[in-house]
Amino acid sequence: MTFDRLDLVSKLYQPTGWPRILEAASGGPSSGPLVVDLDPTTFCDLACPECISGKLLNQGRFTPERLAELAGELVEMKVRAVVLIGGGEPLAHRGTRTVLRVLGEAGIAIGVVTNGTLIRQNLAELAAYASWVRVSVDAGTSDTYRLFRPDRKGRSVFDKVIGNMRLLAEAKQGALGYSFLVMTRQEPDGSVVGNHHEVLRAAELAHDIGCDYFETKAMFDDGHHVIQVPAGILASVEEQLTEAQKWTGDHFEIVNSSTLTSLRTRVGPVQEKDYHRCRVAELRTLVTPSGVYVCSYHRGNAGARIGDAVTDSLADIWRTSDRGIVDPSRDCRFHCARHRSNLELDKIRSGAAAGTVAVPEARSEEDPFI
């Protein structure tokens, strides 16, 4: 069985992670996370005007030695998957190649979220060890790329990124994704620029490159609330995605993100939650140079910081920290991709208490990115 990469609820029912799923469902502390988001650095070589992490950039990085130690600690903690991500560009750290190798050789699944500019320098490790690489492109042409993803001198490196993606497509063992964030911006003169008109062109390019999927997403504001778009823009995106279905097949798919679903359903910026503890916080965590946080939605939030991985081991941080410091009903009123997972964990708890939950049966394939 192959899992839908975005069906996070079904991924809870996998035998390998089941003991810790039950720990998290119980409402108590787990013995360790199943998935870790790791920011190797806060540096980025691009200067995207709409960057949601703009205020967190260029505020430090792990030394290569400490980053290598962290990789070893993740192996010792029996983490099942690591996502190299960041407020910065994860491939910009020269120690990331070592992390890829250490984790990959230990059998830990690896995801990488990147702007694609440094794929060539990390090609061998990405091709050999990454379960998936998702490249944030957000455009279908060089001119539009320059508007929304300029480098520090205001130039477009679109051709470089696409060329790097082609190299990886030829060498990869895992999946390669082309990510498209639907964006609009009001310029000082009052005019509005956007990239939505290039969804179809970008999807065709993703297929031509040899990507495994094309994903369209919505913008967030600084509070991680989904930013709605005018009806005309949404209709245009929908029409283009419908046409792009002609390229789907055994090796290429159009992925519907949870944020795009939020746009379609016009649910508004707030997602109410009536529970006070995030059980998923016992299964996932975020490790950055500025601290360890309950989750990626709270990157840089001092109120959600549970430790310092620069000075302390991850095992010590996990053993002594309180992941319940974030109250979802109060602190997570944005649309959380793991809200439904939290609701499902509550059902698992109830079933376990009643003796009606059985250990999941082994499947031919598993996807640990819960």
From TrEMBL:
<keyword id="KW-0411">Iron-sulfur</keyword>
<protein>
    <recommendedName>
        <fullName>Radical SAM core domain-containing protein</fullName>
    </recommendedName>
</protein>
<dbReference type="InterPro" id="IPR050377">
    <property type="entry name" value="Radical_SAM_PqqE_MftC-like"/>
</dbReference>
<feature type="domain" description="Radical SAM core">
    <location>
        <begin position="30"/>
        <end position="264"/>
    </location>
</feature>
<dbReference type="InterPro" id="IPR007197">
    <property type="entry name" value="rSAM"/>
</dbReference>
<keyword id="KW-0949">S-adenosyl-L-methionine</keyword>
<dbReference type="InterPro" id="IPR058240">
    <property type="entry name" value="rSAM_sf"/>
</dbReference>
<keyword id="KW-0408">Iron</keyword>
<keyword id="KW-0479">Metal-binding</keyword>
<dbReference type="InterPro" id="IPR013785">
    <property type="entry name" value="Aldolase_TIM"/>
</dbReference>
<dbReference type="Pfam" id="PF04055">
    <property type="entry name" value="Radical_SAM"/>
</dbReference>
